[in-house]
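Lab notebook: predicted structure, single chain.

Context: the supervisor wants predicted structures on file for every construct in the current expression panel, including those that have not yet been purified. This is the next one on the list. No modifications to the sequence; it matches the entry in the shared construct table.
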Amino acid sequence: MSTEDHPHPAPHHPVKLHRIQFDFSDKILAHLHTLQTRLKAATRGEVILKALKVLIWLEEHLHHGHTIIVKKKNGEMVQAHFPFLHDTTRTPAPPDQPQGQSSTDQPS
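Prediction complete. Output recorded below exactly as produced.
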C-alpha cells in the first residue's frame, strides 16, 4: 500500500503496513476475480482496497444521515438501500471524526 492508498497519510512519513489473511468461498473468490478483471486491478488486494474505500465513503455518508441516490439508465432516480449494513446513524463517529446527527428516516 502506498501513501496514496492511506485515507489521511502524513506527508513524507512511511505508512506502516499490516498483513491480513482472508478465507473466501469459491463463489466469493469468483466475484473477486470478476471485479479484478472489470476494474483492471493488478492484484486481488487492490480490489479489496478499492472496495474498502467505497465502504468507508458509503458508511461516512450514511452515518451523517445522507441519502444515496442512484440514477437508472432510464433517468429514474431511486434511493439506494444497503440491507447488509446496520443503521450507522446511531453509532458514534470514530474519535478523529465529528459526531453525525441521528436520522429517523434512514433505511434499516
